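TolC family protein
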Amino acid sequence: MVLLAAPTLQAQVKELTLKDAITYALENKADSRKAKLAIENSEYQIQEVRARALPTVTANGNVTYNPILQLNALPGDFFGAPGTTILAPLGQKWTSTAGVNLTQNIFDQSVFTGLKAAKTTREFYQINAQLTEEQVIERVANNYYQVFVQRQKLAVIDSNFVNTTKVRNIIKGQYENGLAKKIDLDRMNVNLSNINTQRQQLINAVQLQENSLKFYMGMPIETPIKIPNTQFEVTPLALSEAPDVTQRTEYQLLKKQDELYNYQKKSIIAEYYPTLALTAGYNYIGQGPQLPWFATPADGVHWSDYSAIGLNLKVPIFNGFGTRARVRKATIDIQKNEEDIKDTKLSLDLAFENAKTQINNSIITINNQKENVKLAQEVLDNTQNNYQNGLATLTDLLDSENSYIEAQNNYTTALLDFKLAEIQLIKAKGQLKTLLN
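Predicted structure tokens:
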């Protein structure tokens, strides 16, 4: 049963390249899905505004019972009693009406402005969805490389643990044969224990970093993943040509926001314009001493129809300067957004320059640390050989091991700094989606 279950368990481990991780995140992360829903919702907003330009048709009906009819004072001349006043009830005990009414806006400036604003809103959400995708790609890429680096550090510790264990075993054999001191064996055991502690800390760090990666991917935390053990490529990058920040998604989003603020202002100004609407209605009314439904003239109930067609004109004259205040508030929103556009442009320029600087520094550090790792490896190999031949002390051996681990970790950290700076440079150029290639 164990042998049969092993392939199944192995198949459940998901191997992730950077492209796989980003693709999964764009399909499953809540941020991406919500951005797509916002685009869909903008279509309904357009339909909602468009509805204001279409006719509105309503059906209505009611039934009224008047237990006490109002008495009206009428001249007695109508009843053959001149010079007197007669109190006579008007109307019927029961009244029921049913009809259809139509309203059609003929001129409403706010409707025309609203239609243009709704289309711009759709474009705004499309750009926002693109920005959300870029943010998801950036977060996933950063966490992916951090997981990779933590695993590289763990691999270094594992290798050192194996080598140190071999040396400890040699010293243990020498001690048992009276060729080594107990203090040397104890020091190696302490060193081995320290390495094992660092190893457990790195195992925990890898797990925590993997959990962060799964979160930014929208992947269930319990899903086991495997990152291929590939080498980072330090490739030449185009650093001289500055990107056109006006093509960046962040900049375009603010420009589209500027359009929306202007439409908002125009919509408020539209309140100064008169509105004209066509109304029409056709109704049927029944009146009598009893419930008119299903009754006939023989029951004293009479039904008749009536209709009306009209134009409603509304001319705003004065509303206490409320419209003027809203127009000025909308103007302030436009001015604030213009300041955001200027600040964002400076921020994007700064990000590009910082990424260039970090790239250059990282390349220098990588080259230095690469040579340092090679040198530390040679020192460690020579020290181990000298120690076994009695030409080096245990302190020299431990120091050379620590120096090698430090050199390896510094090299790995420099690689991480380069990859993170590379992501920022790609972002500054507006090319984050190239990571999907």
